[in-house]
Every structure is written in structure tokens, then in C-alpha cells.
Amino acid sequence: MRHLKTLGLAAMLALSAAPVALAAPVAAPELTVTLKPAASDADGTVPFVDVTVDIPAVSAGAGAPLLRLPLVADNVRTVAETLSNLSASDDAGPLDLVVQDDADKPTRAYRHWTAARAVRGTLTVRYRAPVTTLANPRGAAPPLELRTDGGGFSGAAETFLIVPEADTAYRLAIRWDLSASGGGAAGVSSLGTGDVTSPDALTPEELGATYVMGGAVHRYPEVPPRQGFFSVWQGSPPFDGTALMRWTETLYHHYLGYFKAEGTPPYGVFLRPNLVNAGGGVELNGSFIGTFDQKTDERQFKFTLAHEMVHTFIESLDSPQGLQSSWFSEGIAVYYQNRLPLRAGMITGDEFLKDLNTTAARYYTNVLNTTPNSVIPERFWADTRVRVLPYDRGALYFALVDGEVRKASHGRRSLDDLVLAMLDRRRHGQPMDHAAWVATVTKELGPRGKVELEAMLGGALVLPDDDAFGPCFTRVTAPLRRYQLGFDPEVLIEPKRIVHGLIPGSAAAVAGLRDGDEIVRPVPQDGIQADQKATLTLQVRRDGQVFPITYLPRGEMVDAYQWARRPGAPASCR
Questions:
Q1: CB-based contact 473:566 (threshold 8 Å)
Q2: Second label for 34, Cα 20 to 30 Å away, from 65, 345, 357, 544?
Q3: What residue ranges define each of the domains in the chain, with the CATH number in brackets?
Q4: Average pLDDT of the segment spanning 245-273
């Protein structure tokens, strides 16, 4: 409840004596982005997108901060250094823009633009953003860059959209000019299909988290609803896209019930091919961007879809933001990605076990699984073994909590109750942050709840109880091998991937890799790390010759925890 300052008696009498005209709320200014993709060529490549940005009510002095675009966003190189045909004007006419780049920063470096004279009125910026067909040169990264396949293109706004330097919140209006795209072309964004405007004002970060896909694309449903589920994809997946999206739509409706959602919030799924780490994806502004290649397993991809949908309903902690609290957002998404489809009868018990054991195997064989949470942000992109920890360790932590809550309450309560309590805080305007989770888990489990959380964050091994996943399954051990790249993992994020730190006797060394070899293509690792039998192929340049080196990136054998169907439990038990 909001508390008003007490008024003096005379003031209250004055207010009661005459009607008060309340000021109408001031509508947020509207930033309009028009996207005009070029015609695709015979190979289905869209070479560029012409972008127009109209920013209202600008007032800036000569040389004052005006516009910006990240140079790198989430390990993805943006179009900041490759865009062309840049021009700008305001109410007084054309503007000369001056560019300046930040020095390399540990967080995010930007390209900034200022104007040589004062700027007044509507600022219009036009430029051409190139669209790529190449793998991300920086290696593992979410699918955010402008990419083209099959006559369509897609990308996150933060990789191509120039935005105001000020932190003003704008309603975002997306307008599509598909005149060059041919008949049947469509434009879709996180906000919906076609020309749309966000109902709420968006901060610059939220503007950047808007996703777009346009051109020759596929959709389900063909006529998207005004609210609820919609999907769109480019390229040709190795599965029936419509059938998979119909499955995802059904799961979405189950989630509405599980998380007691208010109304039917829009939820969009965008799918596109990916050359590195296909089968993964990212959640942005209530949408999921998933990727595939011709080897993507549809059954496994369902868990990715289920995972990312959890993010839309639970989101992340309000603070601390970013990778520091990814144990919560990613861990809870992994925890629910198999449990909720199992409850809904949309996967089998065996499929549940396979997904659970993939997570458990990767965690319990990870030689870095005692890395403290505080180290993860700085090492996240440098080492796949660190990158997967928030997912794997977080999920097993939530399984541990769920089991303890069920036992303490004699089966009357579960982790669901704690999650719903957190979501209820957010709905009532209270912070859903780290402190709120500490209070929630401590209220449920007593001091032990806080102690276990702090131990997990400090790097202590997380081990759920034998029956943490229900009466049908029991904990066992199995001999599994640790993931071992065979050389310094930071090689894979360096501008030129020159091998160093080769481990003598490792599978990489035995296969013929040498210090000084150059790896000429980005290397996917996250999925391979989870698969005991998956080989790794490096394209290596040595003495002017390029050739492949393939090996099984595994080291020592260790006993790892897994879960199996309990003896005597019927196959129908789940």
C-alpha cells in the first residue's frame, strides 16, 4: 500500500471544496523502426536490410551524446563497424555525424555518434545493415546476429539497431517494407506479426532484446492470434516444423496453468539454422529464438523449447542481474524443462530420465564443478565447462530443494510453491531478487535453506537425495569420462585461434594436434560436452594447409551420479 503524506486540515478542506483536475498520464514517446530487407538472391540469401529510425522530440547540443550501438553484444559482433550509407537529419535538415568507439571494456563497448551542431525535433537515422551467412567469428554465442537463410533473415535489435544515447524509455513501433521481398513475404517480431507497436515503454536494453524475422518465412498458426502463441522459422529444419510448433503450443497452455499466468500473454518462437552449437537458443522479451542444423534431434530439441519457455514465465532475478544470478534463471529452467512436460504427459519417463542424466553426467564429470558462482561471469565465454555450470548445478540445486520441501511438508508442498510465491511478489510490485529467494527458502526450510544456498554458490558439490525425482526413479553411479578439450580453452575465443597449452597424451595430442596450429572455424562445445560419445572435429591450418583433426574429447574416467528406474517400478511409472 502506498502511504500519502498527511495534509493539514485547511488543505484538506480546500481540496474537498473544489473538484481537482487530475493530469492525464503522459504517453511515452514512440520510436519508429522501419525495416526494408533486400530481395534474396538465387541461393536464398538476403544481403542487407535498410533500416530507418525515427526518434521524436530530440534536444541535444553540439557534440552531446546522441546515438549508440554496441560493438559486441553477448559475444556477437554487431554491424556497428560494417554498416553503410549512414545518414541523419533533424527538423533543420541534414546532420554531420562524428563517430567514436569505446576502448575495449570488460562489460560492453559501444560505438557512439554525436552531431557537429545542435539537434532539435525528430531525429531520423538511415543506414544499411549487412546480413551474414557466416559462423560467428568469436565462437560460442547466442543466435543474435543478423543472419539469412532460405530467403529470410533474422536478428536481435541489439546487434543492428542504432538507439538514442539517453536512457529514455520509448514505445517501439516496428514497420515493415517488404516491397523487395516478393509475394508471400512476412515480417514478424517479438511484438507480433506485421506493423506493431509495443503497448509499454521499453528501455534501451529492452529495445535491444526485440527480435525480428522477415522475408520468405514459415509460420504456425498461419494466421497468428492477437494474444498467445505464435511461431515463425526460416530455412528448412530436419523435422516437421508445424508439428513441433503445435506440440510447443500445447505445452505453452500447460505452462499458463502451472505458473498461474494472468491472461494469455503473447509468446513467440523463432527458429533458424545455426552453424555453431545448433539445438540451443535464447529467450528475449517473451520470445524464444531456437536454432537447428540438419543433425538436430527433434526429441532433444523439445527440451530446449520447454526450457526457454520457462524463462518467459519466470524470467530472472531482479538483482543481481546478468550472469551473477544465472544459477537461478538457467537452473530453474533446466529443472522444469523435463519435469513439466512429464507431468503433462507430453514426454515418456524414459525421455525424462535421458534428459535428466545428460545434465547430471555433465555436472558430475565436470572437473570445474566446484568453481564458485562469483567466478562465472568473468569465465563464462572463455570455458565451456564454466559456461554450463549455472544450468547443471542450478538445476540439481532446485531438485535438492524440491526434495527437502516435500519431506519437510510430508508431501503437501514442493518447489512449485516457492516459485509461485516469488512470482506473486513480482505481481504485487515487490522485488523478486536474491534476498527474496533467501527469505523464501529460509521460511520453508529454516536456516538450512540459506546454508545450502550459500554452499552451492561457493562451489560445494550438489547432490539431491536418492528419491529427489519421485518414487519411480533412484540414484545410481556410472563410470563416465570427463570432458577434456586437450588444450587451453581460451584459444577458441581469441581473434586468431592458435593452439597453445596442448596437454601431452590427451586425445587431441594423440590425434595429431600441435601447439601453433591455427583452428580456422568456430568450435561448438556445449552439446558435445554433454554427450560421452560425441567427437570433436577441428579444421586446422598448418604450414599453409587446412585439414581436419577429429578426436573424442574425453579424459579420465570417474564415477558419476545418474538416476535410473527404480527396480520393480513399471514402465508407466512417471
A1: yes
A2: 65
A3: 28-213 (2.60.40.3650), 217-314 (1.10.390.10), 322-473 (1.10.390), 485-552 (2.30.42.10)
A4: 91
